[in-house]
Amino acid sequence: MKVLANDGISKSGILALEKGGFEVITTKVAQEQVANFINENNVDVILVRSATKVRKDIIDACPGIKIIGRGGVGMDNIDVDYAKSKGIHVINTPASSSESVAELVFGHLFSGVRFLHDSNRNMPLEGDSNFDGLKKAYANGTELRGKTLGIVGIGRIGQATAKMALGLGMKVIAADSFIPEVDVKVEFFDGQSITTKIVSQSLESLFKEADFITLHVPAQDGYIIGEKEFEILKDGVGIVNCARGGVIDEVALVKALDSGKVAFAGLDVFESEPKPEMAILMHSKISLTPHIGAATGEAQDRIGTELASQIITLLS
Question: Cell inner membrane as a keyword (predicted)?
Answer without folding.
Answer: no
